[in-house]
Specification:
With 350 residues, the protein is mainly β. The chain contains no helices and 30 strands.
């Protein structure tokens, strides 16, 4: 049986889009073909369960759960309030016990209980961050949670705190459904960390910053039953380019974690970095312009032959080849028109 992949794309629905768009994905051509759409209000971030049976989404009303059907279409199960203002980022543990929500507007991290059937069972725990970050451009920064990411062994939850220039590390009590602060990574003041990803081997963490336009590289271990993050490298997102007004937007791996990818607004490019898998350190490889404005997010398609860019302000998805020899990417296929795309996940359904 041939493998089948689908892409789920979350959008802002205040213009012409209506929810989460489902696309059939051809990883050999980079072509995405619209299959269906699941109506929901402003699904600005989405995440699939590790067994690919369920999809979870931010919504104006809180968070929503969908069942992934055999053909990849979505069937809504339920939705629940998160105990604060609308969230902006999600993650879920591998056993599908809890859904974690980052709240940008109110600086809240929320832990949502999941039922065995994948539906959401309400709030287990929630914590509002407090404090004031360094003023940048005469603008004081208040707590803004922009990313939730479980550590590879899933003992800790990393909450990227964009406003306080920190990453708060919470120990996850799965039995009691509680979060306990275990440590704080203090990023450079004024950096505004935004998103965080771990390498496939789980030994290194990579953080893209919004204001300093950098990738922060951390060595990660558990030492004496405590999380330990050591900053081993800081790399600019703007190597070899003259673009002062830029901001990092997202960071991801493909199947091959010898390369790390980062999207940059202002520069309007997806940058590639070669990665030393032994040391965890990265080196700038290339930047590839996305022929549009504001690459809010992107996805490296299975097999690492193509990436697709969600060009938020020009209302489109564009696909590009990946060239690991020269770094030069070529645009492929006609652009897909879609209003205000925000997030994307690729799911193998068979």
């Amino acid at each position: 049986m041939a493998e089948k992949y689908v892409a789920y794309v979350g959008t802002y629905t205040h213009e012409t889009s209506v929810g989460i768009y489902v696309y059939d994905v051809n990883p050999d051509t980079g072509l995405l073909t619209e299959q269906s759409v699941a109506p929901i209000n402003n699904p600005s971030d989405i995440i699939n369960s590790h067994d690919n049976k369920f999809l979870y989404s931010i919504a104006d009303e809180g968070v929503a759960a969908f069942k992934i059907l055999e053909n990849g279409d979505l069937e809504k199960m339920n939705q629940e309030w998160v105990g604060g203002m609308r969230g902006c980022n999600l993650c879920v543990d591998s056993q599908n016990r809890y859904l974690f929500v980052a709240g940008y507007h109110d600086g809240r991290v929320t832990m949502m209980k999941l039922n065995e059937d994948g539906s959401i069972n309400g709030i287990a725990d929630g914590i509002f961050h407090q404090g004031i970050g360094k003023s940048v451009a005469d603008r004081p920064l208040y707590p803004h949670c922009t990313c939730v990411e479980l550590t590879p062994e899933e003992k800790y939850l990393c909450v990227v705190e964009n406003g306080l220039h920190q990453i708060k590390i919470y120990e996850v009590d799965y039995e009691a459904g509680k979060l306990h602060l275990a440590d704080i990574i203090r990023c450079p003041m004024g950096s505004a960390p935004l998103k965080m990803k771990f390498s496939h081997d789980g030994q290194y963490a990579y953080v893209i910053t919004e204001m300093s336009n950098e990738i922060l590289v951390y060595d990660y271990h558990i030492i004496g039953d405590r999380p330990d993050f050591e900053n081993i490298q800081t790399v600019s997102l703007l190597v070899g380019v003259d673009e002062e007004i830029s901001t990092g937007t997202n960071i991801k791996f493909g199947d091959d974690d010898k390369y790390l990818y980062a999207s940059v607004d202002g520069l309007n490019a997806v940058c590639m970095y070669e990665r030393n898998v032994r040391s965890g350190k990265i080196e700038y490889f290339s930047h590839n312009f996305i022929s549009g404005d504001y690459p809010k997010s992107f996805a490296v398609l299975p097999k690492d032959k193509y990436f697709v860019s969600l060009n938020h302000d020009t209302n489109e998805i564009r696909s590009f080849t990946i060239d690991k020899k020269t770094g030069h990417s070529l645009m492929q296929n006609p652009p897909i028109k879609i209003a205000k795309p925000n997030s994307i996940v690729i799911v193998k359904i068979k």
